[in-house]
Amino acid sequence: MSKRDYYEVLGVGRDASEREIKKAYKKLAMKFHPDRNPGDAKAEASFKEAKEAYEILTDADKKAAYDQFGHAGVDPNRGGGGGHGDFGDIFGDVFGDIFGGGRRGGQRQAQRGSDLRYNMELSLEEAVRGVSKEIRIPTLTECEVCDGSGAKKGSKAETCGTCHGQGQVQMRQGFFAVQQPCPTCNGRGKIIKEPCNKCHGHGRYEKSKTLSVKIPAGVDSGDRVRLSGEGEAGEFGAPAGDLYVQVHVQEHPIFQRDGNNLYCEVPISFTNAALGGEIEVPTLDGKVKLKIPAETQTGRMFRMRGKGVKSVRSHAVGDLICKVLVETPVKLNDKQKELLEEFEASLNGGKHCHRPKAEGFFDGVKKFFDDLTK
């Protein structure tokens, strides 16, 4: 008895996509599966017929041979039909995609190369202004001798004799048939009998390479710069992964960074704080003048607009915020101590309070103890 056309069996056209073929097969498999039709020989035959058609039409090589030569172009011993049909296969074929499994006969795709990470230490000046740096990284590089195929020059990979190029083998577990990657070819469906002398059949080898990395101005700790295709080479010619340069900005002896703003502490003398004056403060672009008003208290903040960091994303420029710290004179000689004592006496004898915070503090202390004694 001659076999029916596979496209006719599944009820699809010759231009049907793999998705349409799979959908048609699932519908027929659910309808004719022997578990749903116990003792029905006709349903069993329809199930095997649909399964055979599905396995041929979802294998690119077999489909091409079938489309050109019909049933004569497909080896019946490898087609999965006739005596090779297995009722348990339906659980891998129909339900495999739903529960995370692959379809029967699906070869393991060559894996994209792994992404790599490189930690780069930058000074604050480098992070703010941007910098280009050369880095050296160890990685897996595509073999230039075999162009990533893993096969010796002049040879090529051959179809695996264990799985016949399917990449998977079937293992019986009671009623069920479980699909597993082929142990001979590790799921590739092909065997390299003459491996490349350079990469020993892996298609890639370990090598250190030097790259120039351009760090944009305004980056901060935690930012990453992505270098597409500079990670590990993929398996057997698959695309390479990416390289991520992770930025860490070192602590600065003068400035602290918070987003786009910079902060620094500026010491000023007792005299400057009391009488006012002009001092020089550092910025990333050099020194600038800062006017200190008279009677400035320690801890006061001064904002210098546009002297911070230019954002790497919005290009907005932050500010420099200076916190002044009034320094207490040290290592005084006798004459200086005498002058300070005279100065202190003149303050205490005046009619006006020269210590605004002290007045408020001691008033609060007095009230506190008065409340305790009530």
TrEMBL record:
An annotated Gene Ontology molecular function: heat shock protein binding
Entry keywords, A to Z: Chaperone, Cytoplasm, DNA replication, Metal-binding, Repeat, Stress response, Zinc, Zinc-finger
Domain CR-type as annotated: residue spans: 130-208
* Renumbered zinc finger spans (CR-type): 130-208
The annotation note on the cofactor reads:
Binds 2 Zn(2+) ions per monomer.
- Cofactor entry: Zn(2+)
Give GO cellular component annotations, separated by semicolons: cytoplasm
- Which residues are recorded as binding Zn(2+) 1? C143, C146, C196, C199
Q: Which residues bind Zn(2+) 2?
A: C160, C163, C182, C185
Compartment list: Cytoplasm
Q: Which domain of life is it from?
A: Bacteria
GO biological process: one example:
protein refolding
The annotated subunit structure for this chain is: Homodimer.
| Family statement | Belongs to the DnaJ family.
As for what it does, the entry says: Participates actively in the response to hyperosmotic and heat shock by preventing the aggregation of stress-denatured proteins and by disaggregating proteins, also in an autonomous, DnaK-independent fashion. Unfolded proteins bind initially to DnaJ; upon interaction with the DnaJ-bound protein, DnaK hydrolyzes its bound ATP, resulting in the formation of a stable complex. GrpE releases ADP from DnaK; ATP binding to DnaK triggers the release of the substrate protein, thus completing the reaction cycle.
Report the NCBIfam families cross-referenced here. DnaJ_bact, PRK10767.1
Name of the protein in its database record = Chaperone protein DnaJ
